[in-house]
Amino acid sequence: MEDKKTIKRTVIAESDEFQNTVRNIVYLKSVGLHSGKDVSIIIKPAPANSGVVFIRKDLPSPVLIKADSENICSTNLRTSIGRNGVCISTVEHLMSALWGAGIDNAFIEVYGEEIPALDGSAKIYYEAINESGIKKLGAKRKYLKILEPIIIAPAEGSEGNDYSIAVYPAEDFEISYSMNFNHPFVGSGLFESQISTVNFYAEISKARTFGFLKEVELLKKNGLALGGSLDNALVLNETGVLNKEGLRYKDEFIRHKVLDLIGDLYLSGYRIKGKVVAKKTGHDMNAKLVKAINDNKPKMRLRGSSKSAGIVNNKKAQLYGKTFQPDCLLVNY
Known about the structure:
- This protein is of the alpha+beta class.
- The chain has 2 domains: 18-141, Ribosomal Protein S5, domain 2; 144-332, 2-Layer Sandwich (lpxc deacetylase, domain 1), CATH 3.30.1700.
- Helix content is 19%, strand content 36%.
- The strands form 6 sheets. Strands 2, 11, 12, 13, 14, 15, 18 and 22 form an 8-stranded mixed sheet that branches.
- Strand 16 (210-212), helix 4 and strand 17 form a beta-alpha-beta unit.
């Protein structure tokens, strides 16, 4: 007979900080990175505890889609959220900018099926939000604090798949991201930093999305990257980047991966206090983690069958060179 024990893996904690929204309306327009269509958004102030809510205003009947992991409908080279069959694509750069600018609540009217690409980073979004002004609201900001490790990793014994992502308890928000591309200019790298609204603009926001010239035709045949250009993406040939201005950061590629990760994690609905350790992940793995976080507030731990519960018990878990006690959650894919 199995015993059930409730383990709190996360907790929502109120802070001394106040929630924010935009002070004035923000209007932005450009081509959609993947759709290739002209799209626009209007960011409007929202009351405390509203969160971020997208509204498809180009439809006969507007559809409200809350920025929440439950509403993720696609992670194919971008993060899309939807409701009742209506989707909004490529929300990650805007979500990252909202996080970096300290915006907790906003109504975002969307005119089109995708968020504008702008320059392929979060920079223009961040700057426009700050130029509009930040309005402090009367309610306190709440954080999602990680109490026990949550790990998304390959099933034991699987081959050819070394992607993984996890979040561990920490006092602040930290990211450790490692990548390894089979390309002489991109190569491998490691980015580790505590990230906050203080350093987001300088260290993360300007990193642009990137792609490989040899893959462009295949992507377009599959209805992707139809709006991609040197104006909104770093494009690489076999030896380097085609963009005349070059890189904004020496390690711009990995910093953009971090930018995406921040935006995807903000679909938890909260700012996270924890350390995220990611290895070669993209939107799909990011979504798996944020869904696991939201699904485990709290989680029932099953003693006896760790395989069916997806929970490490009766033994220690070894990952990233660290040993974790039995109460960590391990989700295999």
